[in-house]
Amino acid sequence: MAQLGSVTLVGAGPGDPDLLTIKAVNAIARADVVLIDDLVNPAMLAHAAPGVRVVEVGKRGGCASTPQAFIERLMLAEARAGLHVVRLKGGDPYLFGRGGEERAYLRSHGVAVEVIPGISSGLAAPAGIGVPLTHRAWSQGAIFVTGHGKDSASEPNWAALAQSKLTLVIYMGVARVAAIQAGLLAGGMAPGTPVAVVQSASLSAQRQLLSTLQALPADLLASGLGSPSIIVVGDVVRCADAWDDHGAGAQRSVSA
């Protein structure tokens, strides 16, 4: 009977290959097969051994996606064939990456699973424009939240989030920005609250918008920014390199 293989869920970070951890690089180098997500920079595969088998298992909102159940069954089949499988996931496997679901599935079938954290775009995006998620003067914490739930019953409670007074880091929120704005305003968040939108964080194609909660939907539409983007809401955005407290025009700016 063939020896059972293993699976490593690897966080590929926000896109810049230099932001891979050493442990992630070593795992990729040992892989027999790599299942790579759509948003992972293909340059990461430079660390793989010659002849490694690469399977694209793209998952993007609004686009044709590889079913999650298929990905899980494929990882199980490859591990049962005695192979070391690397599941290369954008950002961090446990932050909106379905890593928890995949680990539970594989462990329930007796497969050993290791998880290697990655730098989430929710950390890289604000850092890339000079924004700290916490600041003693403005925010004592940060909340990472998806822009939409699995269904209507699991939608984020934007009014409650507004009342937290913490920095909001919103993933997958571009398509629902009007609803997000309405919910935050209904919760009492000030219309002038600073907002940053960062697209393709850490890559040469990175672009960002600085705006306010009140102007966000119109400014985002005019900017042409789309997915993948991170939205950061809170007074910490005043720390952005391009923010100018004295110039409204500078606050509503797009830059590459």
Secondary-structure element sequence?
A: EHEEHEHEHEHEHEEHEHE
Strand order of the main beta sheet, please? Answer: 6-7-10-8-9-11
What is the beta-strand fraction?
Answer: 15-25%
- Put simply, the count of helices is 8
What's the architecture of the largest domain, going by CATH? 2-Layer Sandwich
Q: Oligomeric form of this entry? A: single chain
The main pleated sheet reads as:
6 strands, mixed
CATH class of the largest domain: Alpha Beta
Radius of gyration: 20 Å
Family: Belongs to the precorrin methyltransferase family.
Enzyme class: transferase
Protein name: uroporphyrinogen-III C-methyltransferase
Pfam family, one: TP_methylase
Structural descriptors:
256 residues, alpha/beta, Cobalt-precorrin-4 Transmethylase, domain 1, Methyltransferase, Cobalt-precorrin-4 Transmethylase, Domain 2, six-stranded mixed sheet, five-stranded parallel sheet, 8 helices, elongated, methyltransferase, S-adenosyl-L-methionine, uroporphyrin-III C-methyltransferase activity
Walk me through this protein's architecture.
The protein is an alpha/beta fold and 256 residues long. It has 2 domains: 6-116, Cobalt-precorrin-4 Transmethylase, domain 1 (3-Layer(aba) Sandwich); 121-253, Tetrapyrrole methylase, C-terminal domain (Methyltransferase, Cobalt-precorrin-4 Transmethylase, Domain 2), CATH 3.30.950. The protein contains 8 helices and 11 strands. Strands 6-7-10-8-9-11 form a 6-stranded mixed β-sheet, sandwiched between helices. The protein is elongated. The protein starts with 5 loop residues before the first strand and ends with a strand. Residues 245-251 have low confidence and may be disordered.
